[in-house]
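hey team, just a heads up i'm posting the complex here instead of the shared drive bc the drive is being weird again. everything in one block, sequence lines first with there labels, then the predicted structure for the whole assembly after. its two chains so it's a bit long, scroll down
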Amino acid sequence: MDWFPLYNSIRIAAVSTVLVFFLGIFAAQAIAKLPRLVKGVLDVVLTLPLVLPPTVVGWLLLLALGPRRPLGGWFLETFGLRLTMTWQSGVFAAVAVSFPLMYRTARGAFESFDQTLAQAGRTLGLGNAYIFWRIQMPVCRQGILAGTVLAFARALGEYGATSMLAGYTPGRTATVSTTVYQLWRTGQDGLALRWVLVNLGISAAVLLAVNLLERREGRSWP
Amino acid sequence: MALTVQLQKRYGDFLLDVNFTVENGEALALLGASGCGKSTTLKCIAGIDRPDRGRIELDSRVLFDSEAGIDLPPQKRRVGLLFQSYALFPNMTVERNVAVCLGRLDQRRRRERTAELLALLRLEEQAALYPRQLSGGQQQRAALARILAAEPRALLLDEPFSSLDSFLKWQLEQELREILGRFSGPVVWVSHDQGESRRNCPRVCVLENGRSAPVTDMAELMTNPGTVSAARLSGCQNYVSIRPGPAPGLVEVPDWGLTLRAAAPWREGVTTLGLRADRVRPEEAEEANAFPCQVVRVVEDGTSLLAALCPEAAPPGAPLLWMELPKDVWAALPDHARLLVAVRPEDLMLLNE
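-- predicted structure starts here --
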């Protein structure tokens, strides 16, 4: 059995989770400070990929990143890099679909953060960056971790947008989910079952991790 | 060298308009009903809320000036604010909560100063504990240690005892007073408890509907509050409408069917007579302002006692007159159904609406 799809899936999920972690936190923090109307509109836009069919997200991404499209074309001309049909394209797809999970959980955690802690920190002379990373993030860390795990899980299971952006090239862009589809399509049920079991194992581990994190909620500091 | 505050802030129909000055080493009570803008005033001084207009100055440093476009960030104001909830960082031990506010010192000095502050506030044994493991009083001391670590030039206390059990308050009040006694800058103490501010602050600024009255001595507020709401905040219990009497120095109380002698002269706009319950006494010798009353009910309050009285000349439906006196004095009275009471002319407070 060729383990490349598992390696590729984890590679895509890991890279996209790192990106989504910072993007989601940044968006959650920035949007919390905006006026209500702007906040409402941006919130809808940023959450949309969560409810849109992944194929629609994939189609929209191709509209921007395709080799004959503005962004994709510019990249190809300037750097000689294709933004589609590579394993990195899988990262774009995974970021797009898992971002809303990180953004929404982070926003929820930040909203329940007691602002008087930040205010107290400022009157005590602590810098805003210190307050954010050393007080707000640790206090909200349960929610942030849960969001990160969910985003990772979503990125790992991504199929629709990935198959459109990265396609299925064995040994280059194949992921666990695209491999299962390919094996089923070509009638290799036995091999498909093995990948299905691998997938089930990973998903169960992720859910277990989320549950453990939630159970520790409120018991972080005595 | 002092804290001068002059600020205006509008919330919809509500206008906060506060003006006061606190000298160094002086404690000013900011007294007002809840929701009148006391906490907001403190937040504006500390820089975590912004006034629409005004000027805030501390030790001749301008913290905020809307006309000059000055608005120092809270980090640069050097104003210590003790939050109602204390706002200790829950993810840090007591020691760390104090140490993070000493970032300007090198490691060794930082450790020494942290130990000094923990000793000063008797928190050595709690140094390694997290805020959630502390009692309310310990949390307050930890919050004070942290504020002192930042070396503020002014201290603002936002209802320092509101989140504590009442039986703890007395002890903690003494401790807080001791700590404040060593602080050389101006102190603003927000409270809705007139007893608490009376005991701790010689000067007082009353906030009514968001507007501050001129700063006065606490003693002046107790004897001559001037307005009904200031009298309420000073703890006065009895209010009844009055009009000028037939001769100078006399006031008429139609609701009680009485004409009383007042030491204060009548002034324009007076509508109400305020009488403190502990200034109403059983008559001893023949004196002015004595009148008979029926006892309507009696409420025991620890070692003292509150009697609700109805002046005999009062028409039906008149407001009751509350009298407060020690229980043993009450027990010694010959008649507990009917009393002859008296008020001294200087205890009559003439109040504007």
